[in-house]
Amino acid sequence: MAEALVRVEDVHKVYQRGSERIDVLKGLHLEVPAGEFLALMGPSGSGKTTLLNLIGGLDTATAGRVVVGGHDLTRASKRELARWRAEHVGFVFQFYNLLPVLTAARNVELPLLLTRLSRAERRRHVAAALELVGLADRAAHYPAQLSGGQEQRVGIARAIVTDPTLLLCDEPTGDLDRETAGEILDLLATLNARYGKTIVMVTHDPLAAERAGRVLRMDKGMLAEQAAA
Amino acid sequence: MKYFPLLWRNLWRRKVRTTFTFLSIVVAFFLFGLLMAIRNAFDVGIELAGQNRLLTIHKTTIIQQLPERYQAQIQATDGVRFVTHLTWFGGVYQDPKNFFAQMAVDPEGLLRIYPEYLIDPEQRARWIATRIGAITGAKLARRFGWKVGDKIPIKPTFWRPTDGKPETFEFDLVGTYRGDKDNVDETAFFFHHDYLMERTGDSGEVGWYVVEVEDPARADQVADAIDRQFANSSAETKTATEKAFAQSFAKQVGDTGAILAAISAVVFFVILLIAGNTMAQAVQERTSELAVLKTVGFSDGVVLLLVLGEALLLAGSAGVLGLGLVVAATPVLSRMVEAFLPIFYVPPDALALGVGFALLLGLASGGVPAYLAQRLTIVDALGKRQ
């Protein structure tokens, strides 16, 4: 088995809503080897997205450790986490989250603005990313001029344009029809198989989960296998 | 610069709203420029007034005349280098609305004591030699399309000719003067005092005296010495520096600076509310987009700067455009108001102040939204969207 890219060790996440304490994650352990395509399934409120946010450095654990690629995210400052995300992680959202005022190319370029690349270099990277997702001819289109599937492809291009090691996908096909969802899953599978991207995908869709190399189920803040043990 | 497309596109996301806000700011800064030009028009007289020149007027009011014989006494006063006199004519050229200052003077005396009036030597000589000759400022000549050699008829209002000739004074325009700086009044009309006396009967009086002192530091002492000489006479005098008179006049009109500053402050406050509202809405309606920026690696500080940059871009570009428009319109506006405000332009320091205010407006209107954008947490913002 490959060395773990992601290690989640006894992680707890607690939210406080007024006087109510909500334990979203309860001592969760997880290892994701480099190059794996992992699907996380489970009912709403089981903590899938929270786990994804912790792995992506978008949120911090209440207790425990999250280590990704040797970086201990639980010890990093907000600024360090932002820089780390820019360099190592790509995010794919259910609702694409493209900026409507920017063209597809400009949307894809966003993470590159944080780098020292020249304008010409940024353009080359953007063109390559759009080519990879099959949208080279839609670079100048605005999100409103694209179909849902095309928007998600642009979202994926944005996620991979900095060539991150880890892709985190939160219901990437949740807003798409079956056929388009299949195309997006093909694309993710290609990124995993051909380009070696490690993918952690949260999904409700069993058909989507089938495309992953491993499927883990979550329930009540724990992985099902851990809960059973 | 690489963030500019992002700033620009975000700014114009709501075209109608941004356009109205943009225009509001443009109008506000245009108005600011106008107010500064008006303020400058009042202040410039004070700034230009020579510290080495005194004015001696009748103690009761400048309207009352002073004996012409005072000139020799003033000239003999210790500390006085030179003295000359001016007399208000107050006539009408064609129509009362064509107002401009006309003064009867001693030509040589006037040009000596006001070296800021520049005139061609030939025209100067011709004026001195021509009894009915007159000179005028270049702006006034341009206003009425006068050329050297023209006959200028001016009808008196309170001076009554006693020579039996037609009431209207007819002057030969023999020259035009220019100021040695842009802010010198070029709208006055000067002619021979002798000609006025000749036609109206020599009253032996003049309007007021302009006195050049040897040492500006002793101006107040010289002024006291002049007034003491005429104390308890039938025509007591009041002497002060030109600057003091200019300030006194400005105060009689009202504290224009304070009034104009108050108007500017109100305008800017209203604009601040408008621009602040635009920026607050702009940030509020795209919290999820800001969260996406943070997700892909934009730090809180960069997001703060982006929102602040947007506000600065809006206020700065609109403010500079407003100021640019008022500068561009100044030549036209100047001609429209030159009868009342002979010196009308937006001074460079007011333009710099305007640019400063525009940037301040950007910072103030974008400050709170930028702070809120900085504080935005990704999970909360995306949670609302998802």
The averaged pLDDT of chain A comes out at 91
Task: Provide the spatial order of strands within the biggest beta sheet of chain A.
Answer: 6-7-8-3-9-10
Biggest interface: A-B, 30 and 26 residues
The main β sheet of chain B shows up as: 10 strands, mixed
Helix/strand class of chain B: alpha+beta
The beta-strand count of chain A equals 10
Elements of chain A, N to C (H/E): EEEHEEHEHHHEHEHEEH
* Poorly predicted tracts of residues of chain B: none
Amino- and carboxy-terminal Cα gap of chain A? 22 Å
Q: What is the CATH homologous superfamily assignment of chain A?
A: P-loop containing nucleotide triphosphate hydrolases
Distance between the termini of chain B: 32 Å
List the helices and strands and how they pair.
The complex is a heterodimer of chains A (229) and B (386).
Chain A: E1 4-17, E2 20-33, E3 37-41, H1 48-55, E4 63-68, E5 71-72, H2 78-88, E6 89-92, H3 104-109, H4 119-132, H5 148-160, E7 166-170, H6 178-193, E8 198-202, H7 206-210, E9 214-219, E10 222-223, H8 224-228
Parallel strand pairs in A: 3-8, 3-9, 6-7, 7-8
Antiparallel strand pairs in A: 1-2, 1-4, 4-5, 9-10
Chain B: H1 4-11, H2 15-48, E1 53-58, E2 66-67, H3 70-75, E3 80-88, E4 102-105, H4 107-113, E5 117-119, H5 121-129, E6 133-137, H6 138-144, E7 151-154, E8 169-179, E9 189-192, H7 193-200, E10 205-206, E11 208-213, H8 219-229, E12 237-241, H9 242-253, H10 256-284, H11 287-295, H12 300-337, H13 348-375, H14 378-385
Parallel strand pairs in B: 4-9, 6-8
Antiparallel strand pairs in B: 1-11, 1-12, 2-10, 3-4, 3-11, 5-8, 6-9, 7-8
Helix pairs in contact in B: 1-12, 2-9, 2-10, 2-12, 2-13, 10-12, 10-13, 11-14, 12-13
